[in-house]
Amino acid sequence: MSIFLELGQRPDEPGPPIHGPAGYPADVTARLRDDAAVIIARYPDSRSALLPLLHLVQAEDGYLTPAGIAFCAEQLDLTAAEVTAVATFYSMYRRTPTGDYLVGVCTNTLCAVMGGDAILETLEDHLGIGAGQSTPDGRITLEHVECNAACDYAPVVMVNWEFFDNQTPSSARDLVDALREGDLPTPSRSATLCTFRETARILAGLPHSDSTDDAGAVGPATLAGLLIARERGMSAPDTDGPPSDSTADGPGDEHAEAAEAVKDQPAPAPSADVPARGHTAETDPTATDTP
Q1: pLDDT tens digits, one per residue of 101-132
Q2: 228-241 burial, b for 16+ CB within 10 Å, e for fewer?
Q3: How far apart are CA 291 and CA 285, in angstroms?
Q4: Do the beta carbons of residue 138 and residue 100 sit within 8 Å?
Q5: DSSP string covering 12-52, please?
Q6: Alpha helix ranges (H) inside 66-108
Q7: CB within 8 A of 51, min separation 6: which ones?
Q8: How many angstroms separate the CA atoms of 80 and 92, rounded?
Q9: Can you say whether the dihedral through the CA atoms of 266, 271, 274, 277 is positive or negative?
Q10: Entry's NCBIfam families (predicted)?
């Protein structure tokens, strides 16, 4: 039996260069400058404001454009190349026009095992678009996303970076249908779902009239390990305290003493004979002494 693993970008994952309008009208530039001044004032070094400024211009255009790149560069005294290098590194900055709701299906290991790939295929068929594309009405952009650190609720779908946990192909279809009809569902961990541009403005650190500080409570699946540890009286070792008592006679004592004896020594250098060590022709007729 053979297993094929496809690495790298999916064929349906275009990585186009940043394109679109080259500049903003004077009134838009003036408005963005006011917002940028609020953001930049929070940082002792102005260039540290680049990430939120990129969210700001993404909120304006729905994706990153040459106009947005030029605006950020001008505000922070950077070159367009420096801004572009950062903008194209992070996947949250879009290079293609994005719909009102960016629906991301996690297809990393655990979500894939739990059905993430099936959810993505179902949504592609249901919406009639591929990953990285938008519906004709501009309501939904579909994409597959990398791990969102929500493996305890796999498989996970995100809408404008809000979690929808424990999804199935059927529930994911209902989710996108509700988005298209304007009947906004409630995310698993917050009470508010904003449009993509509104979300980008919030990520820029600016208030939005419909946004609230409504982070939900931590769910039971996330706390399961902590609760078990407490029930069993388990705790993390005190790394700053004195060495543990080694007078007790137990099978781990000799290992602890050996570790203590070599803890400050450098690791051994690579050795060509390591693979054959302890497994040579004298002990195994099928082995050879050549590494």
Answers
A1: 999 999 988 898 999 999 999 999 999 999 98
A2: eeeeeeeeeeeeee
A3: 15
A4: yes
A5: T---PPP-S-S---HHHHHHHHHHHHHHHTT-SSGGGGHHH
A6: 66-76, 80-87
A7: 86, 90
A8: 19
A9: negative
A10: nuoE_fam, PRK07539.1-1
Positions of E strands within 85-238: 101-106, 133-134, 140-145, 157-159, 162-164
Could you tell me the pTM of the whole model?
Answer: 0.72
CA-wise closest residue to 161 among 153, 150, 171: 150
User: Which tens digit of pLDDT belongs to each residue from 231-278?
Assistant: 999 888 877 655 555 444 555 566 677 677 767 777 666 555 544 444
Q: How far apart are CA 171 and CA 20, in angstroms?
A: 35
List domains and CATH numbers for the chain: 26-87 (1.10.10), 101-195 (3.40.30.10)
**CB proximity list for 195: less than 8 A, separation 6 or greater:** 100, 101, 160
From the number of C-beta atoms within 10 Å of its C-beta (0-12, 13-18, 19+), residue 284 rates as exposed
Angstrom CA distances, 169 to 150, 208, 249, stand at 18, 32, 56
Report the distance separating Cα 98 and Cα 80, nearest Å: 22
Enter the tokens of residue 206.
């600016």
In this structure, what DSSP letter does residue 286 have?
A: T
- Give me the residues paired with residue 163 across strands: 158
Counting Cα atoms < 13 Å in the Cβ hemisphere of 268 gives: 6
Angle formed at CA 144 by CA 211 and CA 162, multiple of 5 degrees = 20
Its sign, for the CA torsion 184, 189, 190, 193, is negative
Across the chain, the runs of DSSP E, i.e. the strands, are 101-106, 133-134, 140-145, 157-159, 162-164
